[in-house]
Structure prediction request, 77 residues.
Amino acid sequence: MTQVQHEPIPTHTPIGDLVVNKKWCKGCNLCVGVCPKQVLSLDVFGKVQISQAEKCTGCGMCETMCPDYVIRVIKRA
Prediction:
């Protein structure tokens, strides 16, 4: 069985990094539903995961919609 990752680990994308703190995620699916490029999905435990980082445009909608501050979009300067 796969373990849930609890430490926020940055995932590199074309625009910078996406950081997901699975420990805080309650699986509400708001971020997944709002992403225009389908970058996010829920894993087998119902927690958000970055499934297609290469498609991320850095729009920040996932970060804005998350009620628990699970996702951070860190753009390159």
Q: What stands out?
A: The first strand starts at residue 9 and ends at 13. The chain has one domain: 9-75. The first helix runs from residue 30 to 34.
